[in-house]
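Order emerges. For instance:

***
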Amino acid sequence: MKELIETIVSALVEYPEEVRVISREEDDKITFILSVNKEDMGKVIGKQGRVAKAIRTVVYAAGSSQHKKIYLEISE
C-alpha cells in the first residue's frame, strides 16, 4: 500500500524524491501519513481537494481486502 501511494504521488509532484509515506498500524486501523515538499502541497491536494479525494479513493479501494480501516493523512 505504501508503494502504491508513493507511485501515485510521485507522478504528480515536482520533487518526487521528497515524497515520504509513514504507516502507523493499530488494532483496527492503518494510518498512512503522506508528506511532500511544501511547493508540491497544492498539486497533491488539488482544487477543492479533488486530487486528495481521488488518491484516498484509490487507496481505500486497494485496501478493502484487508479487514482494517485505512486512513490517508496529508501533512506538511
In short: The two ends are 20 Å apart (CA to CA).
